[in-house]
């Protein structure tokens, strides 16, 4: 899931930081998984035009990285998975797409990529598929039990007994 926004520099940064805080609360308090937050700069922003000195002070991207209890088949040595990122692009896209604000004020953009399937994978790797073992914080959103699976009348074909 990708979220994008544009606005004044301070608003774009505030939105990014609030999304990061909410995602961290979800990962920490509700999913109860091991994670870390990394500050980084995406390659496409690192190699962009020279930035003004005060803009260099802003962390452009934060990532939430979950720690897996094991590696994967394709990469057994890697025991982590990026779950989300939260970016401020500064005026990178405004300059390239010639965005203008009516009073010629700075326009920045930001985005957040939220890997929903990655969150599900991380949760199941941590808690397993037995609903009874899942944390209370998750169960209170689902209810007493998981919803029943739907019955498909077209697939798979059922043999008449």
Task: Give a brief outline of the structure.
The chain is built from 5 helices and 5 strands, in the order E-H-E-H-E-E-H-E-H-H. With 161 residues, it is α+β, with helices and mostly antiparallel strands.
Widest beta sheet: strand line-up: 1-5-4-3-2
Give the mean pLDDT.
86
Order of helices and strands: EHEHEEHEHH
Q: Tell me the strand percentage band.
A: 15-25%
3D structure, described in words:
- The chain has 161 residues and is an alpha+beta fold.
- It has a single domain (2-142), classed as Bira Bifunctional Protein, Domain 2 (BirA Bifunctional Protein, domain 2, 2-Layer Sandwich).
- 31% of the residues lie in helices and 23% in strands.
- It has a 5-stranded antiparallel sheet with strand order 1-5-4-3-2.
- It is elongated and about 70 Å long.
- The termini are far apart.
What are the SSEs and their pairings?
Layout: E1 2-7, H1 9-30, E2 35-40, H2 43-46, E3 61-67, E4 80-90, H3 92-96, E5 108-114, H4 116-127, H5 136-142
Antiparallel strand pairs: 1-5, 2-3, 3-4, 4-5
Descriptive labels:
161 residues; BirA Bifunctional Protein, domain 2; 5 helices
